[in-house]
Amino acid sequence: MPYSTSTPFTVPGLSVSDGHQVGEALQMRLHALNDMQLTLKHVHWNVVGVHFIGVHEMLDPQIDAVRDMVDETAERMATMGVAPVGTPGALVKARSWDDYSLLRDDTTAHLAALDLVYTGVIEDHRALVDETEDLDPVTQDMLIAQVAKLEQFQWFVRAHLQSSSGDLADAGAHTEQDAADQAVESADVTARDSAS
């Protein structure tokens, strides 16, 4: 028997059409957050190098917080009358991004790649913050709180990539692998300069 993806109701104060529009717009945020928590766990398992333990342990609270965001987003969708879809197949089919590209790699490489992942998720979250401003301020508040936390986590990541002058080792990179390579090269140059 086929299931319905939406109900004939939404939250009080919104039309069913507007409530469902908001709920459906949250689906891609749900996919992005699900992907993000899996990517963070993947990095947690595969990071190596001098700063391993610091990065490994830094990621645990980020993973937990993003998992909470997944649950919060799915529950908001259900509240709006839209069934959240959290299956891996639906995520892969709907996403516009590729799988995270690094396997076992140095802390600097992973952090540079994660910087780009965070940028993509934050930019898309901020776009939906703008879209929900007039339509549903309750959903907008949820998204704003999530963005604030994601931006803080990106700051933690970037602190490992930043020089004392404020430059990011992965600045200008457009792919995870390019960001990783660029950051590792920058770290190697810094290490050589320090040894001189």
List keywords for this structure.
196 residues, mainly alpha, two-stranded parallel sheet
Description:
The protein is mostly helical and 196 residues long. The chain contains 6 helices and 2 strands, in the order αβααβααα. A two-stranded parallel ribbon has the order 1-2. The radius of gyration is 19 Å and the shape is elongated.
Total beta strands: 2
Using the CA coordinates, give the radius of gyration.
Answer: 19 Å
Low-confidence stretches: none
Number of helices: 6
State the major sheet.
Answer: 2 strands, parallel
Mean pLDDT: 94
Residue share in helices?
Answer: 55-70%
Shape: elongated
Give a brief rundown of this model.
With 196 residues, the protein is mostly helical.
SSE layout and pairing:
Elements: H1 16-46, E1 47-48, H2 52-79, H3 88-94, E2 105-106, H4 107-132, H5 137-159, H6 176-195
Parallel strand pairs: 1-2
